[in-house]
Design a protein that fits this description.
213 residues; mainly alpha; 6 helices; 83% helix; 0% strand; transmembrane; membrane
């Protein structure tokens, strides 16, 4: 993998991590929070905006998968980290895909579909937590590699990535078995890990991979 290709793939990976963070912030700011009148009203009144945000997020996850797999192919010591980030992006993509395809139909077709809606909601969040956990662990790996390579801003970002990856990974792994009880802490720590991971991805792909075949 040439340095120019690696840099371009690194930019794509950074975008793949950053886009879902931006869409999450937009969703929580303008569309987030349960409606006291129920999911039917929520999706009926905000359907177009919700789908637009989720589609954008899905594109971001797809970019993340492709870029991370490309980097993993010849990344040497970073290979496991990029594979974890690719898995995390896949988990996020499955979560948003379920939301786009299934939430509106189950939520807006009467109370008899509410149990199915809740089951699908829990499935979507399982993939959400899986995605955040895998991404956080990938960020942890990138952080370790940045710390190992030297000082300066890279080492500072690496230390932050290690901390954010540990916390985000642990909480989201627990959340996978807890249903919706840990949505806020899992989502917040996952987003923080992803933000730090985007910076780590940008920095580390400006350096040649170590241990590459």
């Amino acid at each position: 993998m040439t340095n120019s290709y690696r840099s371009r793939a690194g930019l794509a990976a950074t975008a793949g991590l950053a886009i879902p963070v931006i869409t999450t912030a937009a969703y929580m700011t303008f569309l987030g929070g349960p409606d006291e009148r129920g999911p039917a009203v929520y999706f009926t009144e905000r359907m177009d905006d919700i789908i637009t945000v989720w589609l954008t997020e899905t594109v971001g996850f797809a970019i993340g998968i492709i870029a991370a797999l490309g980097l993993a192919a010849q990344a040497g010591a970073e290979r496991a980290s990029w594979n974890a980030i690719a898995l995390g992006s896949l988990g996020g993509l499955l979560s948003t895909a379920i939301g786009i395809a299934a939430f509106p139909g189950f939520a807006t077709n009467g109370e008899q579909f509410l149990p199915l809606f809740m089951a699908v909601l829990n499935l979507s969040f399982f993939f959400f937590f899986l995605g955040k956990a895998a991404t956080a662990l990938g960020v942890l790996g990138l952080g370790i590699e940045l710390v190992r390579r030297g000082g300066g801003i890279g080492k500072v970002v690496g230390l932050l990535a290690v901390l954010a990856g540990l916390v985000g990974g642990a909480i989201n792994i627990v959340a996978m078995g807890s249903g919706l009880d840990l949505v806020m802490p899992a989502g917040l720590t996952g987003v923080i890990a992803t933000v730090v991971g985007a910076v780590a991805a940008f920095l580390i792909t400006r350096q040649a991979p170590q241990g590459a075949e």
